[in-house]
Amino acid sequence: MAELVFHTGPMDCGKSTLALQLDYTQSTHGRRGRVFTSQDRAGEGVIASRLGLTADAIEVDEAFDFWRYVIAELTGGHRVDYIVCDEAQFYTPDHIDQLARIVDELQLDVYAFGILSDFRTRLFPGSQRLIELADRVETLPIGPLCWCGSRGTHNARTVDGLMVTEGSQVVVGDTTDGGEVRYEVLCRAHHRRRMTATRAKATLSPDPLPFDPDDF
């Protein structure tokens, strides 16, 4: 039976690396697939892992239709055995519904890879729909660490080293007019306190008090 499988985890846990490895393993055993991505930091139509691995991919924008694409490939005499979808958090709920239909009606395996929640700890719409529809949700076992050494679980957006909690859900670029935008993985406790590595160094304290002493 074909499956819709969602592989998830925070940034820097190896999702894109696993996507490329899965495609390589499947293709070396004679299967033919298609690899998709959306808004990868390396540019349009590219999957890039933080280990330096890259591969060409089909870019998914809002108007893209997975069902029509796969039907066109099959009716055109092209073989499709599986689908790999990286950066799936940026897909729309309609995209995920199309992927589920491909699994159910065409019996093709679909492997999706993506982040669950944004810098505000809110689920991405694509990830939410994947949780609702996937046959399996797999959390990658090897994840990044927070600056304090604890397991990193939450993605923080920083501007010039300071965590922000407002703004567009998707900001892929590294810089804006408002300052240098980057992302940092934090444990839940330090995400709640907005305690980034830069701020922790500035306070000269590895774990400052979780409350303001002036309030007492």
Write a short abstract of this structure.
27% of the residues lie in helices and 24% in strands. A hairpin with a 5-residue loop joins strand 3 and strand 4.
List keywords for this structure.
alpha/beta; 216 residues; 6 helices; four-stranded antiparallel β-sheet; six-stranded parallel β-sheet; 27% helix
Distance from N terminus to C terminus (CA atoms, Å) equals 61 Å
Integer average pLDDT: 87
In DSSP terms (H or I, runs of 4 or more residues), the helix count works out at: 6
Give the H and E element order: EHEEEEHEHEHEEEEEHH
Low-confidence stretches: 173-177
Could you give a short account of the major beta sheet?
6 strands, parallel
Order of strands across the widest beta sheet?
5-2-6-7-1-8
Which descriptor suits the 3D outline? elongated
From the helix content, strand content and strand pairing, which structural class follows? alpha/beta
Give a count of the beta strands, DSSP E runs of length 2 or more. 12
Strand content: 15-25%
Helix content: 25-40%
From the alpha carbons, calculate the radius of gyration and give it in angstroms: 19 Å
Would you write up a description of this structure?
Helices cover 27% and strands 24% of the residues. With 216 residues, the chain is of the alpha/beta class. A 6-stranded parallel beta sheet has the order 5-2-6-7-1-8, sandwiched between helices. Helix 3 (93-106) packs parallel to helix 4 (125-133). The model is unreliable at 173-177 (pLDDT under 50).
